[in-house]
Specification:
This protein is of the alpha+beta class and 459 residues long. The protein is built from nine helices and 23 strands.
Length: 459
């Protein structure tokens, strides 16, 4: 209760406070019942600020008469009492008794009639000339001049980039009230909070509090209610006029306009050929998230990753980032999510909207074949090709004859099979393409070359 009603002009006040920490013993010698008496029953170890005249406070209380009879309680209403201090919104005794309190401090206040409701009282509630006792617990304090407060308690040694307006971020947080009560936590949901910064997707205080953070940084952001959920709260977990404290750890950061970035770690002195679109590569890699969490590694499987590049076999960022690499080169490729696994991520491995970091080492590079080809000739094609394959001269070529001939051309360097595929399967498919009637043999009439530029003829 402690609401504003009629009261006589306040006389000079003897306001005595014990400026100690920890459990406070009752204070003796505070004067007669005509004076305000304050007992600090509990003072928290940490008290970054205390109530001043003009502050807005939220507190719980129990109001009793000297005989212990309760006349009011905020606990019974399951709601704190929210009010400005020192602006005449409270009875004089409470206005004065709240000054100097810390959040989580508990005070027992004895208010004489002249600093409460005087000789008139409140009809049906407070008899005339009543001494009032209040057991007060301060929950929240802020001022209309407050701004967002930021306390960075961990910053990584390397910070190549910080959050700017329009960036997309992924972070973990614990959200508490000023008294430490938890109201929300991404850790409990085991899922990061993913959002754009500075475009109105967040409460204004969080939009401001996240700016300038590095990936790996941890900071505490304290937000006054008018930069959070204001007078109405969020309608669920956050009451009106509540200050909010967020303990934030930034895990990921990118901008939708980002492209891949490449950092060369090791570049060999001699480089006969760099990788090009269509080439077949064998490489090792470690794949991590931006905060260093490992999500995949070819080293752990003890097997290289083998693929063509520039043909959509890998994510777009890797297709682009693997171009121009020499055998023996090591490089770091950073891939934004729109060139990686996007908003959906990869189930069980990569979260949605995650920036990916690949540390790669190229072990082998094989020039690829022209698009659509599985075998090419490295030189001129014999005009008597069918006769050379048909060694027994019976006018029919079986799979065994065809396979023996193709492998001989590859072994001698006259022909080339597409790298990265099962050689026997390629040869079988080539034979099937020539066996146009499907009878298991190829005749001279069926046998034809696939037209292509010089030295790229294919069966």
């Amino acid at each position: 209760m402690a609401f504003r009603g009629w009261r006589p002009p306040p006389p000079p006040l003897l306001l005595l406070l014990l400026w100690v920490t920890g459990q406070a013993a009752p204070v003796a010698g505070l004067g007669s019942d005509a004076e305000l008496q304050i007992e600090r029953r509990f003072v928290p170890d940490e008290c970054p600020r205390t109530v001043r005249s003009g502050d807005f406070v939220r507190y719980h209380y129990v109001g009793t008469f000297p005989d212990g009879q309760k006349f009011d309680s905020s606990y019974d209403r399951d709601s704190t009492f929210n009010v400005f201090v020192g602006k005449g919104q409270l009875i004089t005794g409470m206005d004065q008794a709240l000054v100097g309190m810390c959040v989580n401090e508990r005070r027992f206040v004895k208010i004489p009639p002249k600093l409460a409701y005087g000789n008139e009282g409140v009809s049906g509630v407070i008899p005339p000339n009543s001494v009032l006792h209040f057991d007060v617990l301060l929950m929240d304090i802020w001022n209309s001049e407050d701004q967002v407060q930021i306390h960075t308690y961990f910053k990584p040694p390397s910070c190549p980039r910080t959050i700017q307006v329009s960036d997309f971020v992924r972070y973990h947080y614990n959200g508490t009230f000023l008294d430490g009560t938890l109201f929300d936590s991404s850790h409990n949901r085991m899922k990061t909070y993913d959002t754009y910064v500075g475009i109105g997707w967040l409460i204004p205080g969080m939009d401001k509090g996240l700016l300038g953070m590095c990936v790996g940084e941890k900071r505490i952001i304290t937000i006054p209610p008018f930069l959070a959920y204001g007078e109405d709260g969020d309608g669920k977990d956050i009451p009106g006029q509540a200050s909010l404290v967020f303990d934030v750890a930034l895990l990921d950061l990118h901008n939708p306009k980002d492209s891949i970035s490449i950092e060369n770690k090791v570049v060999p002195e001699n480089c006969e050929r760099i990788s090009q679109s269509g080439d077949f590569l064998r490489y090792h890699y470690n794949g991590t998230l931006l905060d260093g969490t490992l999500f995949d590694s070819s080293y752990s499987r003890n097997r290289t990753f083998d693929t063509y590049i520039g043909q959509g076999y890998v994510i777009p960022g890797m297709d682009e980032g693997l171009l121009g690499v020499c055998i023996g080169e090591k490089r770091r490729i950073v891939v934004p999510p729109h060139l990686g696994y996007g908003e959906e991520g990869r189930d069980g491995e990569v979260p949605g909207s995650a920036v990916l970091v690949f540390d790669i080492e190229l072990l082998e590079l094989v020039a690829g074949l022209p698009e659509g080809y599985m075998f090419i000739w490295n030189g001129e094609v014999s005009p008597n090709l069918f006769e050379e394959i048909d060694k027994d001269g019976n006018g029919e070529v079986l799979l065994e004859e065809f396979s023996e001939y193709i492998h001989a051309q590859v072994a001698s360097g006259k022909g080339k099979l597409a790298p990265g595929f099962d050689a026997e399967l390629i040869v079988k498919n080539m034979f099937t393409n020539q066996d146009r009637n499907g009878d298991g043999k190829v005749t001279a009439e069926e046998f034809k070359l696939k037209d292509q530029e010089a030295k790229h003829d294919e069966l």
